[in-house]
């Protein structure tokens, strides 16, 4: 097989699985549906691993067009692949996590009537995500971008009979519209000024257009590169849930847990990070854009972490942690440490997928009770889930030698070295974030796995049950005499397989990815202007020493303080949180956090309500009277009227038909012979000539 | 004259088809009504072999035969391939429909195959008389086929109308051909083309002939104002025959137009361009506007055909290879789209129920989601919604028109397509959003259903990969035209 065939097979294998499971799932049954989709993704993963190995052993990057779909005015709309080390790494991460989630789903969705549909969707997602990362042009990138958005929408609303799920998927869809609007404008600017949609051509032309300015409003000129990059980044803000477009991600937890792991933690939400890293030759040219990225990322990293502290729904804690970690990656992008961002993307994909899947396992063990206040002491009953969760949490908070440590500390190092104006704030945000992360992670860990077995107590807290399949058939939560149980092997196997990279991938990969030339010629950094990477490379070349050195650095002690605080609050003195809560309630902080900084409030009662109000006005006046009344119904009436007349011409009498033919022939003869014989005056001739003899 | 000097080998597909049809006619005499399947199978085998012979005989360079009365060039060969496919689809989809209506007889098969011979001769003829003979072989077979259902008042009435008007049009066409012969002194298409280009011949006489030839062509295509027969015949004929009339002959008509206008009358391109503009504009407008007012889906398809022929003419009037290949693509894909549309109508029809009212399609998607979706693809493709092949057919034609500089014409065509989208989408709306009024059952065997599904899916696949066919047809036009 030549490489091109392999590159084609990688996305097509999951697509095939999705089509078979989706179209013929009713016929082939559950077992065949999961076999064919898992088979497709497994093929895809095996080939991706082969491709990565090929790249690591010095294989050439591939950039080529597979198929030209259409070509308008010299602009081609191609299906093409750009496979380099960045792509190969993303492909491996996507297919590996996807494979784990596929296997996990066998256990998790076991009782669900939409079993085949679910498999079809997640395979379709894998296809879309692969098309996104493998694109070599903006059109295909946009296709993948929208396709993953669509599947995400379908999966958040997988249990479409529940109003909360449909609300959440609508919200995700609408918020992403805002981001995609910016993204599309950015692509439009690229097309307008670069005259191409091919990455290689655009990147090659970028330095020439560094100083080009455009006028958006008269009197104000803007740097083309800054506007383009910021618009593209707005797309990333939607997809990667950056402040202030983050509001959809917590609600997306309405979807089944496997997709929270796959789509809303490991892969799709990192598409924005990947995209910015891919566009590094453009972002490097604009200080403004980088600063914007840095500040947005810093806000997200810190403030979303705070929200994680007060959540009681196990999935929402992890969701806010995802938001905060995405903020970290964005900060790294802003500091020009693209490779660090991508590195964190990779490690995070493993440990966050692990945490989500472990949360799903806990939810199954608790009979679909998601409120951590009802749990406690689960370590006795769910040993594998407990150990793997602990590994995931330790990796997340940055315990030295675990994967999260290397990527997160590299981000902190990069931000320290950054010279951008926003770097001071960003540095504070990422350092404070370390404490916050450790605190909420271990708050959850202690509440779930240690302490009293609270489900035995009467008076359950009723946090909402995002994973109830059917309100009527399922009982939620354990009764006082029930015991939690460990999940079947199809659930625990992925946990174990994800725990391994969560432990070691950082140690193994940091050398080549950050200090080595893994990303040479793939990610472009202007080291003179943006020295952040220098500091990272200095540490990254020796992973072992970096781990040892960590015990003498601030982040480690901040993380340790976070864990200690969580231990004191939730294990030693459980009365403390309530007391602190009362204090915070008095000064209004509690309320601010509970209302998620009033962002939802602002959007729903502000923008959405204003939109609806404006819509009502436009509908009543613009639509009902002007468009419907005058244009649509008016023109429809005209069309209908004409149609009824024309219809009447069709009398059914043969002599009418013959008459029409003869008249038609006669008119032709008159006009054309008339032109030749000069029956018409010069003006008529000119008119006829213009109309009928129109020549280019 | 020997076999080799005749060079008859290149007409092998036609010769085989004709012989096989005659044999079929004889064999069918000995087949009882209960075992008509034999005739059906033999007819399909005949088509398959004809297709294989076409495939084997393909040569990129035009080859002449029968003293330059017959040519095998890529346009002819590809068009014939499309026709064979179109006719095969007619037989496959129409079998159970014909059986339910008492027209599942040997005549159906022999006449259909004779009409195919006529079409194939039309595509390959390069002599005015041969062209005419091919056309008449097609037309006479079709007249008889429309009247095949003897007891149906609608069918006989429409056959009569078709015959009388068709005779009138044939007369005009023949008259036009005689004028051209008078003006140039030749019946050979290449010869005429050459003489007119270098300025020989009587110009007045030639224009006179041109007008009549265009009139005849317009009738066969069903372009306004020579379209009046189309709705009545589409409506009155049994649906299986409607499918035959509405699909493969469009390719024959395309080849016919190429022979007459692009090759013989190339020198008069500015003149016939003007005429075709008038025909195209009227067809687009009247076709789309009238289709809206129809409540019968066969009549709706009839008017939609008229508007599609308007599009076909748009490509031809560009009068360069780009335009011709766009039109070729349009005709080719239209054959498949129309075949799928009528095939679906026949799928829903059963004994005593024609399924030709729009209301019969209410709730189809709920009862039969798969075939509802197939119908949706056909409608989307006809409306020219992107990703389906109909979009690329329209796009190719419009690009050619815009390149010629006639932006107003392209804008007009788009506006008319927009109006047209209404009645296509109305069918989708009925299928997906309305409650079923009748109980909908499907007729037809599994084989027909599978072929029909593949046909509909082809509309999507060709939309995803339009370039293979488009470049193949483009090459065909480029290879065929100069000579």
Task: Output the keywords.
heterodimer, A: 696 residues, mainly alpha, 26 helices, 4 strands, 71% helix, B: 483 residues, two-stranded antiparallel ribbon, 21 helices, 2 strands, 1% strand
What gap, in angstroms, lies between the N and C termini of chain B? 25 Å
Q: Whole-Å distance between the termini of chain A? A: 50 Å
Query: How many separate helices of chain A?
Result: 26
Number of helices of chain B: 21
User: What is the percent of helical residues of chain B?
Assistant: over 70%
Q: What is the average per-residue confidence, as pLDDT of chain A, rounded to a whole number?
A: 83
Morphology call of chain A = globular
**SSE topology string of chain A:** HEEHHHHHEEHHHHHHHHHHHHHHHHHHHH
Strand order of the largest sheet of chain A: 1-2
Q: What's a quick, concise take on this entry?
A:
Chain A is built from 26 helices and 4 strands. By secondary structure, chain A is mainly alpha-helical. Chain A is globular.
